[in-house]
Amino acid sequence: MTIVRRVVGGLAMPLGSVVFAFVVGGLIVAATGGNPFSAYAGLVCGGFGIGCTQGENPALQISNTIVFLTPLITTGVAVALPFRAGLFNIGAEGQLLAGSMACTAIGIKFSSLPTPILLPMVLLGGMVAGALWAGVAGVLKATVGAHEVVTTIMMNYIAQWLLRYLIIGGPLQLAAGTSKSLPIGPGARLATLLPSDNSLIVFGLPASVYRVHSGLFIAIVAAAVFAFLLWRTTLGYEIRAVGQSQRAARYAGVSVRRTIIVTMLIAGAFSGLAGAIQIAGVDHNLTDKYFSDTTGFDAIAVALLGLGSAVGIVLASLLFGALHAGGSVMQSDAGISSNLVLVLQALILFSIAANFLGAIRQLIPGLRRQAGAPPPETPAAALMTEAAAASEPGSQAT
Amino acid sequence: MSTTVASNALEMRGITKAFPGVVANNQVDFTVRAGEIHALVGENGAGKTTLMNVLYGLVHQDSGEILIDGKSVRISGPRDAIARGIGMVHQHFMLIPVFTVGENVMLGREPVTGPGFYDRAQARKEIAALTRKYGLSLDADARMGDLPVGLQQRAEIVKVLYRGANILILDEPTGVLTPQESKELFGVLRDLVKTGKTIIFISHKLREVLEISDRITVMRRGKVVGHLTTRDTNQEEIATMMVGREVLLRVDKKPAKAGAVAFKVEDLTANSDRGVPALKGVSFELRQGEILGIAGVEGNGQSELMEVLAGTRRATGGRVLLGDKDVTGFDARTERDAGIAFIPEDRRGTGLVLSFSVAENSILGREKAPTFSWHELVLRLIAIREWARKLVKEFDIRTPSIDTAVRNLSGGNQQKVIVAREMGSQPRVLLAAQPTRGVDIGAIEFIHQRIVAERDHGAAVLLVSAELDEIRSLSDRIAVIYEGRIVSIEPPETPEERLGLLMTGGGSATLPA
């Protein structure tokens, strides 16, 4: 009984946030002269291939959703892990870019190497680059107490401008006048699940249009590694202890500084892996589309909506991936700008942050929490307060 | 309502308040006569705080009635409570240390001249009038942070009086006071009653309750289990009522068989969190099979001493020897591995990770021990759960399961988790800081027995406690600490007055052994 209640209670917050976002989003669509029902029908078709009316190929839509959700899982983990240590990693985007740049550079430099050597090299290279990118923030937090929110945001800018430098007039540029890099060698590419053979027809389309690649499995393994690390290892135990109470961790003999640095290194490796997978699995070169990439920021919403758990992150990634894939179908079918998807994402995040559900519960007399009783914290709110508490001046890493 | 006798300052009738999963107050009747000191006693979770929160308007009762001076009232918030003459002196002072006494007392009701200018002269005059009326001496211009705790508490009382309180609620008021300060407080309370004030005194120190109160209401598990007249009762009767069974108030222990020197501290110095010297050369020896109690007013270095010995604070000088081994610079983990167990004074912030389960907390600090992890990397969950189950059983920890977050346990059971963890590994040295603070009588009895049992098994026990009674009943020797120095080492029979004097820097030291 209590387990059922806990599960339901735990799901109420993320589901409530999603419902809230869709209701408000629907009101926005209606107020601006659109039909919210056809807008959402477009999203469902585009995201899950269900109920399509304009001849979209359901298999292709699902393939696109999977392509979008893959990097969200790994970056979601990269945000969720530091949350557990009381750290707010806003820098998943910069770490992802660092990973994609390292992956591309290695993939170009050693383009002649065969897959069994080069593919691990580019993926590991991406992880190391991401780890270093996040490690800077970790070291600064642990040594001089610089707040990780500020430093990771700054590291995002550095990564973004470094990317511009590299592919516009820099060493990785394809040719003068272009804003993309050389392609990585064939040995650095992740296999697509279907052979890129134009003569093979799958679900009525040539197999080469499906971009689903084996990075999906890497991402799912990464989520499993995250869960194992957190709950089954001494390091995960110590990370959680540091996140909950630095004083208790210190009392236990855990080095808070070391834990902060290690946590950021691991988180950065996850983000860097996401970047490397995007290059190796989807794009095969750096392009200007990475200038406006928001995966690492969406990852914050994914981590919060997923309540910081591995399964939650995978599910939240599925939702965000589907929204992303569905936006263009909504635009073409229902005539609603795909920017509505960004509005929905922002509303979800906003709703989690503001804990509307708790506020609504307070307003309905029957559901009102009893004053004096310990407030049942919603997990995400707890995650955020942990991060906030860790940033209080008194609790600096020493 | 016609039955109400006018001499009742306060009457709470049939107060019931339920929280999810627990009835905190169940048909509680609580009557306080005008001009008396009425003690409200009970274990943690008995419902004292809820009852007072109902009275102070912080919580609303589900049913029941409150009558003040015979008139039924509705109290919907602290503002209402204050307007009806109810004042609360909290256990943790609500004072601003950088403000003067006057500013603190006036805060929220400052006398002003013109548009928004604080009228210091008027404030001083009003405070002088108040303190004269109630015989409380207090300097309105002193900076609050500079005053000793006893005077800070007095300022709290003046603040409540300034707001027109007739019924004063004092929540565990002596918890932070020295014996002398407690005596002074009792004098103040008696004077206040003489001027017609009514006092509700919440405490778990039965000796004080017997000393100061006129009548006693005892609560247990949300219900009132007894109304007593103080002069007709004794500690044993109250304790039995509180716990629901007979309780051993005195610690039953055999004389110590002190063995070899286990722990030697030589001229130890260390700084406090604020960077000022807190230990100014502490030296003592601790033998196997003895309990050395450290008596002192809080803030005289005992917390820092324990932390240095446990490895969570750096020493600035001196040496600590465990047997023949110099363990001075050791960190917490190495100290623990060397056989030093530590029960920290701040259990909720330091000794436990509140959101962790009982099982997870049972290995805090030992998660990398070979028993609990594979090559210090992967947790051995089965072994951990077995260990936790064993501790729960052996130390009688009342928890629904070992997977319950310790946040949801009572204070006494939280403390038992720490005690079990630290004693479960058969330490050579046990550092116990305030091991029974905020813990129920039943659990206190249990923890005392376990500490003595550790001693009898040959452990060297260093005990720090703010409760002189605890120090005197457990210790085989008592070291008195004052301003970062051990000023004297006394036998356990030393009269309380002498210890109190030494603790405040008076008296002459006997044998600094």
Q: Brief overview, please?
A:
The complex is a heterodimer of chains A (398) and B (513). Chain A is an all-alpha fold and 398 residues long. Chain A is built from 15 helices and two strands.
The second-level CATH architecture of the largest domain in chain B is 3-Layer(aba) Sandwich
- Largest sheet geometry of chain A: 2 strands, antiparallel
CATH class of the largest domain in chain B: Alpha Beta
Q: What would you say the CATH architecture of chain A is?
A: Orthogonal Bundle
The assigned structural class of chain B equals: alpha/beta
The named CATH superfamily of the largest domain in chain B:
P-loop containing nucleotide triphosphate hydrolases
Secondary structure tally, helices of chain B: 17
SSE series of chain A: HHHHHHEEHHHHHHHHH
Could you explain how this protein is built, in words?
The complex is a heterodimer of chains A (398) and B (513). Chain A is mainly alpha-helical. Helices cover 69% and strands 1% of the residues of chain A. Chain A has helices at residues 2-31, 36-48, 58-84, 92-109, 115-143, 148-167, 215-232, 234-244, 246-252, 256-283, 295-305, 310-334, 339-354, 356-363, 379-390, and strands at 201-202, 205-206. In chain A, strand 1 and strand 2 (205-206) form a beta hairpin. Chain A is globular. Chain A starts with a helix and ends in an 8-residue tail after the last helix. Mean pLDDT of chain A is 87; it is low at 367-398. With 513 residues, chain B is of the alpha/beta class. Chain B has two domains: 8-243, Rossmann fold; 261-353 and 408-503, Rossmann fold (3-Layer(aba) Sandwich). Chain B is 32% helix and 27% strand. In chain B, strand 19 and strand 20 form a beta hairpin. The termini of chain B are far apart. The relative contact order of chain B is 0.10. Residues 1-6 of chain B have low confidence and may be disordered. The chains are: A mainly alpha (398), B alpha/beta (513). The A-B interface holds A 232-235, 237-238, 240-241, 244-245, 247-254, 370-374, 382 and B 18-20, 24, 50, 53, 58-60, 310-312, 331-336, 342, 344, 346, 349-356, 360, 364-365, 367-368, 373, 376-379, 381, 407-408.
